[in-house]
Amino acid sequence: MTRQHLYWLGAAVIAAATAAYWFWPSEQPAQATAGQRPMSPWAMPVPVRVISAEPGDLRAQIKTIGTVTPLNTVLVQSRVSGTLQQLLFKEGDKVEAGQLLAQIDPADYQIQLAQAEGQLEQNLAQLKNAESDLALYAKLREQSSISAQQYNAQQALVGQLKGTIKSNQAQIDAAKLQLSYTRITAPISGRLGLRNVDSGNLIQANGAEGIVTITQSSPINVLFSVPESQLQPVLDAVRRGDSLSVEAWDRSDQQLLATGRLTTLDNQIDTATGTLRLKAEFANEQEQLFPNQFVNVRLNVAVYQNMITIAQDAVQYGSAGSYVYLIENNKAQIRQLTLGASDNGRIAVLSGLSGGEQVVLEGLDRLRPGRAVEVIGEQAAQPAAAQPGQDKPRRRPKRPE
């Protein structure tokens, strides 16, 4: 045998020894009875944990995400230009509709009002004089002392002055309105935001920044979307006139923030997303919900009573449909199911179970029909510590990185 043959033979022996070390089972079953061959671990009963299929009530929920939106949001702006004399609110306060928020310097608008009122007084005096002359012209016209043209001209003057007085009155009303705009009041009830301007600044009418924003947060809305595939139960409930409750949960979906009612469905499905927008209203008296807040939404569509339910984790899915493993005579058997609504990790079974069956929840990966099983409890499901006197499993060294 050549040196090259000896080299390859030695390499093969080393490879076989290494494979045996890594892949040979580290634990043998309990001591075999004399004369019997040790049982393969794959032929031993599979430890499983089971749950019972029990009847109960189940809520049909649609889970989605939504955004909190105020019923009304108003940017408070000044309708007139001028110096902002004072702000009469505190940022973040709740205000009522009509409450005074700010004061613009009214001096310019008081002067304009006085000018309009003075012009009116002047024209009233002219009208009074013209009407006296018209009364005199009427007597002279009866005596044919003046021409008809003079009488008609005086009549026209009186009419002209009456029109001027109406115009003067309109100017007074406009001046009073402008003067009233120097007192800026809250158009709606709600909570104030941060102010956008300070006292002493010269502000312009209808400025884009405005003075402050008011949001109506009680009650408040939540906007969310429902997929088209889940829409039919919602439409059926709305057409029956049912009042559907809506729950708003926090971002982590761990804490219930508020409960409200579904109020509005949009009139068309969004073709880009295949969803329909819905709106729910919440009383929000304690202001648990904040405008533009992200929330997890649960729309309660219906409550199914006395339904057979199981944990969703026990359900398996295959080419023939949904199924579970049942324990019969300490052996695993497959049972095909027809499933219904689900809620919080449980799912309704429409057909396939009658109640009381032992359904496998854990240990599913090694099961097959007819496989022997060993049902264990919650404590036994945890890895047991090695007892004194028992051989501990061999710990293999880590492979080099």
From TrEMBL:
<feature type="domain" description="Multidrug resistance protein MdtA-like barrel-sandwich hybrid">
    <location>
        <begin position="72"/>
        <end position="215"/>
    </location>
</feature>
<feature type="domain" description="Multidrug resistance protein MdtA-like alpha-helical hairpin">
    <location>
        <begin position="112"/>
        <end position="182"/>
    </location>
</feature>
<keyword id="KW-1003">Cell membrane</keyword>
<keyword id="KW-0472">Membrane</keyword>
<dbReference type="InterPro" id="IPR058625">
    <property type="entry name" value="MdtA-like_BSH"/>
</dbReference>
<dbReference type="Pfam" id="PF25944">
    <property type="entry name" value="Beta-barrel_RND"/>
</dbReference>
<feature type="domain" description="Multidrug resistance protein MdtA-like beta-barrel">
    <location>
        <begin position="219"/>
        <end position="302"/>
    </location>
</feature>
<keyword id="KW-1133">Transmembrane helix</keyword>
<feature type="region of interest" description="Disordered">
    <location>
        <begin position="377"/>
        <end position="401"/>
    </location>
</feature>
<feature type="domain" description="YknX-like C-terminal permuted SH3-like">
    <location>
        <begin position="309"/>
        <end position="375"/>
    </location>
</feature>
<keyword id="KW-0997">Cell inner membrane</keyword>
<comment type="similarity">
    <text>Belongs to the membrane fusion protein (MFP) (TC 8.A.1) family.</text>
</comment>
<dbReference type="Pfam" id="PF25876">
    <property type="entry name" value="HH_MFP_RND"/>
</dbReference>
<dbReference type="InterPro" id="IPR006143">
    <property type="entry name" value="RND_pump_MFP"/>
</dbReference>
<dbReference type="InterPro" id="IPR058624">
    <property type="entry name" value="MdtA-like_HH"/>
</dbReference>
<feature type="compositionally biased region" description="Low complexity">
    <location>
        <begin position="379"/>
        <end position="388"/>
    </location>
</feature>
<dbReference type="Pfam" id="PF25917">
    <property type="entry name" value="BSH_RND"/>
</dbReference>
<dbReference type="InterPro" id="IPR058637">
    <property type="entry name" value="YknX-like_C"/>
</dbReference>
<keyword id="KW-0812">Transmembrane</keyword>
<dbReference type="Pfam" id="PF25989">
    <property type="entry name" value="YknX_C"/>
</dbReference>
<protein>
    <submittedName>
        <fullName>Efflux RND transporter periplasmic adaptor subunit</fullName>
    </submittedName>
</protein>
<dbReference type="InterPro" id="IPR058626">
    <property type="entry name" value="MdtA-like_b-barrel"/>
</dbReference>
<feature type="transmembrane region" description="Helical">
    <location>
        <begin position="7"/>
        <end position="24"/>
    </location>
</feature>
